[in-house]
């Protein structure tokens, strides 16, 4: 094995985001569309309802004839079947429901958890995707992973453990976020580990807790690489700088599809590394009309399985609800694949005087003031979203060493940057450092005061 090669799959990865790859995608779709229509009841129903036959799909452009399917449609379907999850899986998977090996799910933070079954037939595809991502993160034989994503049903947890199985020469410590920060730190000290997989929130929390738990900085744990995902953070410059400095490690971002960031010093977004497996589109979040894939384009990420296997659920123009911004020009790192950044989630979207605002955008601004803020904040909602009567109320922790006399100037700067970046001026409530609850998993940024 050539450990210096740039890609895990040297045959296919250099072709990403090229005219040759688009032709490969086109051929895969046309060859597999009939099989997906026949095998997956929900795909058949959606196409029939839209009056689309498999023979009508003669190219990638013809996919636009099939409506987008996301969490609102999934919730509606759940209601139609009386929240019978077995029936939902039958509709999503057809006969492959009999091949389920592991059942994972989203965290369900915005409603009913979305199921993500792992079938035995899909394991090779899942492992191929994982290996491509890990290789780009510099993972090589001899590395030891501390797996600190939630293992209890979470999509990034146990499925990640399964996906690692055929990467050569690595060791995995599946500690899990459920174990808590103390056990994660102590187990790492006992058994070693030079690569940490977790949410950005947990990585930041470990910085704060390490001196208390082990009497030393988090750098003493010896991680060389951080691979973070499942929530925003790893792409925010100030957060990246803090994590890389405190850990003395290189940080990679992954998620919201099959993407992973590169090692270029300035964050370039995540490289899409699955062109031959999943077709990627952007659509307008409101109109759901196709948005051309051009530098700087923003829209809802939409995915279609191309290989006819998929790993369980065969997606046909499915969306996870993430709004992306893409860049199709060559990355300065030299690696293949267009890049995408996460703008926010449609489920979290707030509308303030017609302006669409996402918690991820608020997070970007708050964390840009580190260390004058701790980065911790909560959005306070008096009424159910998405409509918010202005001003948007936000609680923000000021940083250690910031005095009450400093807050007036800090508030002016935060308000101004919020106005420039998000087009709103929030009502800020300043609170003391460490006032807000920290999470070992995903952090919930919205407080629903109307439910209290």
Describe the structure.
The chain is α/β, with parallel strands linked by helices and 452 residues long. The protein folds into three domains: 13-124 and 271-347, ANL, N-terminal domain (Rossmann fold, 3-Layer(aba) Sandwich), CATH 3.40.50; 139-262, ANL, N-terminal domain (Rossmann fold), CATH 3.40.50.12780; 349-451, ANL, C-terminal domain (GMP Synthetase, Chain A, domain 3). Helices cover 29% and strands 21% of the residues. It is built from eleven helices and 20 strands. It has a seven-stranded antiparallel β-sheet with strand order 8-9-14-13-12-10-11, covered by helices on one side. Strands 4-3-5-6-7 form a five-stranded parallel β-sheet. The radius of gyration is 22 Å and the shape is globular. The protein starts with 18 loop residues before the first helix and ends with a strand.
How do the strands and helices of this protein lay out in sequence?
Elements: H1 19-39, H2 41-49, H3 71-80, H4 85-93, E1 100-105, E2 115-119, H5 123-136, E3 144-147, H6 158-163, E4 171-173, H7 181-191, E5 195-198, H8 200-214, E6 225-229, H9 237-247, E7 250-254, E8 259-261, E9 270-272, E10 278-283, E11 290-291, E12 298-305, E13 322-327, E14 339-345, E15 350-352, E16 355-357, H10 359-367, E17 373-381, E18 393-398, H11 407-422, E19 427-431, E20 446-448
Parallel strand pairs: 3-4, 3-5, 5-6, 6-7, 17-20, 18-19
Antiparallel strand pairs: 1-2, 8-9, 9-14, 10-11, 10-12, 12-13, 13-14, 15-16, 17-18
Helix pairs in contact: 1-2, 7-8, 8-9, 10-11
């Amino acid at each position: 094995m050539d450990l210096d090669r740039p890609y895990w799959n040297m045959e296919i990865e250099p072709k990403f985001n090229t005219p040759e790859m688009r032709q490969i995608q086109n051929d895969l779709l046309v060859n597999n569309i009939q099989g997906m229509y026949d095998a997956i009841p929900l795909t058949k129903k959606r196409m029939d309802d839209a009056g689309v036959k498999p023979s009508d799909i003669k190219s990638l452009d013809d996919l636009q004839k099939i409506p987008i399917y996301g969490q609102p449609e999934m919730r509606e379907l759940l209601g139609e079947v009386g929240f019978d999850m077995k029936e939902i899986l039958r509709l999503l998977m057809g006969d492959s429901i009999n091949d389920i090996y592991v059942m994972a799910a989203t965290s369900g933070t915005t409603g009913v958890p979305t199921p993500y079954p792992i079938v035995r037939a899909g394991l090779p595809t899942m492992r191929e995707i994982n290996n491509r991502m890990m290789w780009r993160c510099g993972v090589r034989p001899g590395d030891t992973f501390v797996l600190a994503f939630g293992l209890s049903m979470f999509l990034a947890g146990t499925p990640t453990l399964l996906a690692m199985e055929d990467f050569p020469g690595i060791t995995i410590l599946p500690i899990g976020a459920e174990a808590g920060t103390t056990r994660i730190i102590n187990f790492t000290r006992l058994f070693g580990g030079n690569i940490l997989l977790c949410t950005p929130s947990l990585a930041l929390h470990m910085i704060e807790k390490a001196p208390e738990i082990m009497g030393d900085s988090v750098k003493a744990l010896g991680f060389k690489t951080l691979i973070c995902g499942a929530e925003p953070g790893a792409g925010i410059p100030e957060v990246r700088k803090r994590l890389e400095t405190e850990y003395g490690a290189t940080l990679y971002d992954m998620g919201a599809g099959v993407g992973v960031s590169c090692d270029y010093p300035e964050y370039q977004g995540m490289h899409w590394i699955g062109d031959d497996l999943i077709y990627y589109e952007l659509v307008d979040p409101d109109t759901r009309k196709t948005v051309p894939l051009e530098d700087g384009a923003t829209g809802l990420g939409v995915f279609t399985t191309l290989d006819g296997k998929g790993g369980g659920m065969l997606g046909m123009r499915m969306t996870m609800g993430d709004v992306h911004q893409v860049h199709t020009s060559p990355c300065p790192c030299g690696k293949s694949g267009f890049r995408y950044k996460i703008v926010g989630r449609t489920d979290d979207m707030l509308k303030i005087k017609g302006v669409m605002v996402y918690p991820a955008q608020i997070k970007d601004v708050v964390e840009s003031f580190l260390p004058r803020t701790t980065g911790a904040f909560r959005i306070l909602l008096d009424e159910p979203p998405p409509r918010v009567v202005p001003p948007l109320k936000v609680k923000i922790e000021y940083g250690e060493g910031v005095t009450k006399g400093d807050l007036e100037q800090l508030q002016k700067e935060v308000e101004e940057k919020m106005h420039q970046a998000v087009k709103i001026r929030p009502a800020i409530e300043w609170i003391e450092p460490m006032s807000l609850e920290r999470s070992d998993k995903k952090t919930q940024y919205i407080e629903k005061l109307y439910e209290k």
